[in-house]
Amino acid sequence: MQIYVDSANIKEIQHAASMGFISGVTTNPSLLAKEDPSTDIRELIKNIHNTVGGHTSVEVISTDTDGMLREADEILSWFPEATIKIPFIPAGLTAVRRLSDQNIPTNVTLLFTANQALIASNAGATYVSLFMGRLDDIGTDSLIALQDTCEIWDAQGLESMIIAASIRTPIHMLECAKAGAHIATVPYKVIMQSMKHPLTDAGLDAFLKDATKIKM
Ligand code: G3P
Question: SS3 of 143, please?
């Protein structure tokens, strides 16, 4: 399972990327809105992509097909490597089909069920983003939706890449990998939590202390 950073914060992304295991970044309007209001969003997104180098999703905000396609064109004019992130609504699926027919990569977002993911895949989505945390927030077991999705993908041999999104805890990340998601897009905080283990820290302290007693 590949790990993306779910963030628009360049400092977080730079640090995560510097560790060598990140292969993409997903952004959304809510993440971009958390950054300094004076930020030039185009420059930020290009900077993010130059930092990580792999997948970078940029979300459209139109809710009609023509508007989404216009936005996609506009985004691709200054950032040709963009994956266009599109919400799972009927107008969005039409846009996904049109972009897919032009070989433009798409990431269909706001998916909460395996059926939605299956439909997005049939519309030509390159990536389907299934949200975990927001399902758990309303008392629905997100793991069941993800397991169903992965089972369908195996049974049908579907090609769209499954992104587990709305990841809130290290347990989510573990569950997504076990279920067979291709990618988890993980907030920086959860990446750092997932790396932390007290025995790693204590073990390193002990090694460093003992290293002072030996000659190399
Ligand atoms: O990738 C989608 C993700 O950003 C949503 O996360 O925590 O806002 O549900 P969250």
Answer: helix
Probe target for ligand 1 pocket from 88, 134, 163, 167, with the most ligand atoms within 8 Å of CB: 134
CB of 166 sitting under 6 A from ligand 1: yes
Rounded to 5, what percent of the chain is helix, strand, coil? 50, 20, 30
Catalytic residues: 85
Residue 157: CA atoms inside 13 Å, Cβ hemisphere, count? Answer: 0
Q: Among residues of the chain, what percentage have pLDDT more than 70? A: 100
- In order of 78, 95, 145, 205, the CA distances from 105 in angstroms are 16, 11, 24, 46
Q: What local confidence, expressed as pLDDT, does residue 216 receive?
A: 78
H or E, element range at 161: strand 161-165
Torsion of CA 30, 149, 137, 61, to 10 degrees: 20
Q: What's the residue count for the chain?
A: 216
pLDDT single digits (tens) 137-154:
999 999 999 999 999 999
From CA 130, how far away is CA 34, in angstroms rounded?
Answer: 22
Residue of minimum CA distance from atom 4 in ligand 1: 166
